Amino acid sequence: MAIPIPDPYGLELQRSRQSFGDPLARSIPTHITLIPPIRVTPAALVEIEGHLREVAAQERPFPILLRGTGTFRPISPVVFVALAIGISECENLERHVRRGPLERALKFPYHPHVTVAHHLSDELLDRAFKELSEYEAEFPVWGFSLYEHGLDGVWRPQRDFAFGAGVSG
To answer: pLDDT tens digit string along 37-54?
Structure first.
């Protein structure tokens, strides 16, 4: 489950990720993760989608302002575009999504971000950090999407969950 980054920003950041040589750039749409990929059975998916509809119905749109870069190094070789506005709303949404059938223990505290370089050399991670250090984009968040992580490694949107409205797509 993730908040998709709308175009033109999603496409801009995906192209940047490609330019840094990140092999996942073409496979993973630009997003803010709510729940990372997990394995679920078809029966569990029905319950999960019901839960996600309930969560989305209770939420309201909110603004996101992406500004500058951050990194999880040395813990994890990741460079990301940071949120300047929308952090608390993403944290609240993540808490609500990670309940019921999606209740999971976290390995790390939840930190909303947009990954732009992952598992690359230090030189490329430094380049990504520097090149996007002044990046800025603002957009409204309308809801979130459920993705399927295919056997080919590609994330494909399966359902959209619009705030205040339930499910579409």
So the answer is: 888 998 999 999 999 999
